[in-house]
Structure formats: structure tokens, C-alpha cells
Design a protein that fits this description.
- This protein has 374 residues and is α/β, with parallel strands linked by helices.
- The protein has 2 domains: 2-241, Metallo-dependent phosphatases (Purple Acid Phosphatase, chain A, domain 2), CATH 3.60.21; 246-372, no CATH class.
- It has helices at 23-45, 64-76, 95-104, 180-183, 260-267, 289-302, 322-328, 332-346, 352-372, and strands at residues 2-7, 49-52, 81-84, 109-111, 118-121, 124-129, 154-160, 188-192, 198-201, 204-206, 222-228, 236-241, 246-254, 277-288, 308-319.
- The chain is elongated, with a radius of gyration of 26 Å.
- The mean pLDDT is 89.
Amino acid sequence: MFRFIHSSDLHLGKRFGNFSGDLPSRLREARHAVIARLAQHAREQGATTILLAGDTFDTETPAPDVRRQALAEMQNHAPIQWIILPGNHDSLQSTQLWTTLNAEAPENVVLAVESRPLELARDVILLPAPCTTRRPGRDLTEWMDGEATPDGALRIGLAHGAIQSFSEEAIASDVIAADRARRAGLDYLALGDWHGAVEVDQRTHYCGTPEPDRFKHQRPGTALLVSIAGPSAQPEVMPLPTESFAWRRLDLHLLEGDDPVLALETLLPDSRHRRMTLARVVATGRSRVAAWAALAGAAERLLPDFAFLELDDIGIVTECEVEDLDQIDRGGALREAANALRAEADDEGRASSERDIARAALVRLYSYAQAITP
């Protein structure tokens, strides 16, 4: 029995420049902490090796502290063996990075920088396919088909890239053959690139990123524990939880007459988990302007409870009746502004973006009027 952990796409040093405050630094630290979590899983599960299938670093020029602290953390967990494969974000094109890593890597860290067999353990051979550039323009796993290994040895492939539509940045010439494991006689093909866990077939898996970094994949961060009893045996693959931050896209569909605040609070995680949750609430349906304003106000009040909370309400169709406008004002400048915004929001001759802006402004005006009403 050979047992190992399959992980990928740590993206150490990712900047998260689209967020503000201390959240980017918290997210970067969580990515570094993944190393210790992977090592803990390895010890608990009796795994001796951790395969990192590309994009260990977010760029080809990671900061010295990101690089050296990662290697130091891996060294702290010896004798666990770490295998680092160049991915498309940290490809071999950056010769300086891999020369430096080679000089700094501790004994328990192996850099899989050549397409040649590596012995992981007795009768266990790794066939790595390091990314030569960000977009190699060819299937880098082809060489595995004809590579001989000792009789009775396990053949494990390690690669980073797209299979069919499973890609973050796929182009046709980079696609890995979907049946590469069968063609090359692999007992297991460990893949990186896709940030959600995907089983391509029983012997071919994307592990997903251990620490999610976007709302695109509706799955928690995981690594895979892989156990192989021997040549030709089906691998046993078990997901292991690794994330500290949860990224959640939450769909909120409203009908006229619904209580939007109650609907929002029902949808959100409980207070114990909010500090470590990034949530994007996507609201759709129909709503009166008063209910829409209440929803926006509730989201703003809840904002400090979360690592990040965003309300995407562009999909709500706003119903605005005369009585709603009366709540703003029955006359004067405010009412004239409200009438003008309502007319723009209902004008089908305008671009949808202009109508959305008018609707949002009308809700803001409504909220302002309610706030100043004695």
C-alpha cells in the first residue's frame, strides 16, 4: 500500500488586491497555513509524501519571505516528503526562481523540474510533467506513454493543466489527453490547475485548491488522500478538509411580498462562521422599492460581521408604485427627482446599465428620505 496526499494551487503570495483593509493579509496567511494543515493530514493518515501539482507560488517572482518561509515550513514537517511541480503561474520559464529554490530547498523537498522518472519510494515511480512556460502549447504528459518503469512498480503521473473544459485559462493546444492515465498505464494521475475538485475518471483527479480564492467554485477547499494497494489496483481517493476561509455565492430569489431581511438572514451562515466567510449574495426576482431598500440596509448592517459581504442586486426587478414615491415626498424637489428616476428606470429605450443606475439611485433616495423622516 502506498499512500500520499495530492494537493495543488496553493498560490502562495497571492495579493488579493481587489479587497481592502486587513483582509488581503489574512487571506495570504491562510494560504501559508495550508502547508501545516497538509502535513497534519499526512501524519494522521499515515502518508509519507505530499504531491503539489503546480502553482505552489502565485507568480514566477514570489517575494523572498514567501519563498523561504514556505520551504522552512515544509522542512519543519520532515520526514514528510514534498514534491513541487512547476505550474503555469510558477513555470520553468522563470529560471531564477527554480535556481533559487534548488539552492534553498531542504532535503525533504524535491523539485520536479524535469520530465523524467522520480522514485518516491520502493517500487513507486513518479512521472512529472512540469510546465515549461505559462502556455506550453502542447500536451506535456505525452512522454509518459512510452516511459518504461520497473516491472511491478506503481506509476503515478503529476501534471498541471487542462483536460477538456476543466481549465482556468485553457487553450486547445494545451489540453491534456483525457485518457492519459490509460494510455500511459498510470495507476493515478494527479492534476492541478482547476480550483475545484473534479474526478475525471477513477485514476485521474483534480484535487482543487486547498484554500479557495474566488466565488467560482461552489466547493470547500480540499486535498485528496490517495491510497493504492498495488499495480493495477483501483486507487482509493478520499477528500480531506483544508480550508480556513469559506467563499460562498448565495442565491436569494425574492417574490413581491417577501420579507427580504428575513430571507437574507435565513440564507447567511450563523454568527460563529461569519468572520471566516466571504459571501456574495446574488439577489434576483421582483421587489417593491421599500423592500429593496430594506435589503440593502440589512446587508450594510451585517457587513462588519463577515470577512467580506457583497450584495449583488442587479437581477432584481424593482416595482415602484405611486405610494412608494409618496414615501419619499409628496411634492417638491425630492418628488421631482424620484419621478425622474422612476421614468428612467422604466424607459426600455435606455441601455440596461443606465436603467440599473436609475433604479439604484431611486432606492438610495428612498433610503435617504426614510432616514430623515421624523
